[in-house]
Amino acid sequence: MFETEPATTAMLLTAAGLLLVLSVLFSRPSERIGIPVVLVFLLIGLFVGSRLPEHFVDFDLAFRLGTVGLVLILFDGGLNTQFRQVRRYLAPASILATLAVVGTAVLVATAAWLVGLGWMEALLLGAIVSSTDAAAVFSSLRGSNVQLRRRVGATLELESGLNDPMAVILTLTLTAQLMTGTPFALGAFVLDVALQLVIGLVVGLGIGWLGTQLLRRVRVPAAGLYPALTLALALLAFGVPTIFMGSGFLAVYVAALVLGNQRLPYRAGILRVHDAMAWLAQISMFLVLGLLAVPEMLMQAGWRGLLLALVLAFIARPLMVLLCLLPFGYRRSESGFIAWVGLRGAVPILLATYPVLAGVNGSYELFHLVFFVVVVNALIPGATIRWAVALFKVEQAEQQRPPPVLEINAIEALPVQIMSFRIDPAAMVSGIQAGSLPLPEGADILLLVRQKQVLPVREDTVLKPDDHIHVMVRPEDKRRIELLFGLREED
Amino acid sequence: MQLTDILSSDRIAVDIAVSSKKSLLEKAAELLAQSAGSASAREIFESLCQRERLGSTGLGHGVAIPHGRVASQTEVIGAIIRLRRSIEFDAPDHVAVDLFFALAVPEQCTDAHLRLLADIAEQFGDSGRRDELRQAGSAQEVLKLIAEQPVRP
After folding, report:
1. How do the domains of chain A map onto residue ranges?
2. d(Cα A275, Cα A187) in Å, to the nearest integer?
3. Which of A57, A202, B1, B74 is deepest in the core (most CB within 10 A)?
4. What b/e sequence results for B95-109 when a residue is b if at least 16 CB atoms lie within 10 Å of its CB, and e otherwise?
């Protein structure tokens, strides 16, 4: 009906804009009730899709969009992961991301086979739903002022960054097998998987390192060009290894991990842009995936979908996690919690579009089964997560860092660091005059924000509870400053 | 105020065993409560916990300075604990902690108290001093080491 441009594009953009606005507006209520916010996007997509005069079936677009989306999400995840804090958990997370992924896939596949799917289709289904989404975990916890014990949070975070590549490799390989009809050879399969992971890892490290050098050396005329550069690096990190038969998703995560842990110019700005990109990717992915699903077919997936979802949540995931974490000395409550919160996110639904594209028999039904499994496995752990935190006692003793009221960003890497604190009555500096603080050399209070007023700090300024202060400090004196001032704000 | 003014050998526990951060803080509160002018162990324990909630008082290199502002505390009191086996203390460098200097400070704390805290951090920040404290054979020896202030630059 709108055959002339720009009308078609205008319609499209208006629709996309409206959907985005709707999604953003609904994010807060969902946070309050503890439903993962991404599920709301999915439901909006599903609802709007079922109201369209013609059903949306562009799996091509969905796959491409989903791939870009996952690249952006993984890149953002890598940038925000503090490697020093998580490296101790690299071994358990890697085992979870490989062995547990395969084990979960096989267990779910067995259940799927028992309810009547062919072996290959069953394995494909298992592979598709095998990876977790930590962003969903953390977004479910946000707002409740709960912080997970470091070991638990770091393991979940690393696991989910590392297990997507594995699930992708499994799904693509199995789809290729199904299409070419070659018999399944375990040896060749394992070799292939290992090769993809190694190439992904190496290229990821390489791009991360080169990217760091590039960002440090290059002088660009506008600060906004730095995030444009990191975005380009994200695309390269996916594209290059994928061309050479490596795992692009692993490379993206690894490259971002390297970049995120270096001193970068305009770091805060870069992080902010990628955060926004990741959100946009989350919303678009889930909206489009919701649009693709047909409610009637979801009804058909019915009891089988529900059964498989429950097998994943109550048998496959817990069993594999508990087994895989056994050698790492996790407390039973910790591995129990990790086993319980195997939230599924966008990746399985993205992966489910792949067999449809490849033209695998019965893949459309498979897509809806996966849809069902994902929704249930986002809903059950998502809605119970706060309860699970209390039950397994995995809350960290420390308070969550409050957000800062004022951000001071360095455009270039500087030898001093600026830390911000919120003064708490339990901190030693509360009630003390700024002039008599025993600050290390080179450290000073820069300014103070008190009830939305920015004040200069004089010798006789008394620090009061709920003041926000910014302190400049040499990196080696950070610990002492933290000892005196107490509660740090988010970076 | 000197560090030795707030210590006494009966508040220095050498080579004891505790299993967790919580039991360490309980033990510290118990030692601090022994002094005249101190609040109850319960109250001190709670104030120590409150401070830990803001962020670990671990300094890295296996040392920590748990401290708290205690409502019914009339004077500042310190205690030293050295563990036989170090414990997880959420320290910034993720190293388990075995050396603790605990402080109970009056609610109305002054810059003198703050300077004490900074002094302790200074002493504990010195790797030679840490080694000496780890090797000291008894509470008296620890006290002696603290008494001989390190040379200030």
Report:
1. 9-392, 417-484
2. 40
3. A202
4. eebbbbbbbbbbeeb
Please name the residue that has the structure tokens 């699970």. Answer: A388
**Tens of pLDDT along chain A (491 residues)?**
546 888 888 988 998 899 889 888 887 777 666 677 778 888 888 888 888 888 788 889 889 999 999 999 999 989 988 887 788 889 999 999 999 999 999 999 999 999 988 888 899 999 999 998 867 777 666 655 667 887 888 888 889 889 989 999 999 888 888 888 777 778 888 888 899 999 999 999 999 999 999 998 888 888 889 999 999 999 999 999 999 999 999 999 999 999 998 888 888 889 999 999 998 998 888 888 888 888 888 888 888 899 999 999 999 999 999 999 999 988 888 999 999 988 888 889 889 999 999 888 888 889 999 988 998 998 888 888 888 888 888 877 677 777 778 877 776 677 888 899 999 999 999 999 998 898 988 899 988 999 889 988 998 999 999 999 999 999 888 899 999 998 888 77
B78 Cβ contact list (under 8 Å, min separation 6):
B3, B6, B7, B11, B32, B101, B102, B103, B104, B116, B120
Closest CA of chain A from B137, distance in Å: 28
- Enumerate the active-site residues of B: 67
CB-CB under 8 Å, A479 with B118: no
Alpha-carbon torsion B71, B74, B77, B83, what sign? negative
pTM as predicted: 0.79
CB contact under 8 A, B92 and A482: yes
CA distances (Å), B54 to each of A405, A481, B121, in order? 18, 13, 18
Among A432, A478, A483, whose Cβ lies nearest the Cβ of B111? A432
A71: Cα separation from own chain's centroid: 11
Domains A9-392 and A417-484 share a fold: no
Query: Structure tokens of A264?
Result: 């970068």
Q: Which of residues 98-117 of B touch A (CB under 8 A)?
A: 105, 108-111, 113-115, 117
Q: Which CATH number fits domain A9-392: 3.30.2000.30, 2.40.50.140, 1.20.1530.20, 1.10.10.60?
A: 1.20.1530.20
- Residue by residue, DSSP assigns B51-115 as HHHHS--EEETTEE--EEEETT--S-EEEEEEEEEEE----TT---EEEEEEEEEESS--HHHHH
H or E stretch covering A455: strand A453-456
Comparing alpha-carbon positions, the chain A residue that sits nearest to B47 is A426
CB atoms closer than 10 angstroms to residue A388: 15
CA angle, B32 then B63 then B74, to 5°:
25
What is the topology classification, in CATH, of domain A417-484?
Alpha-Beta Plaits (3.30.70)
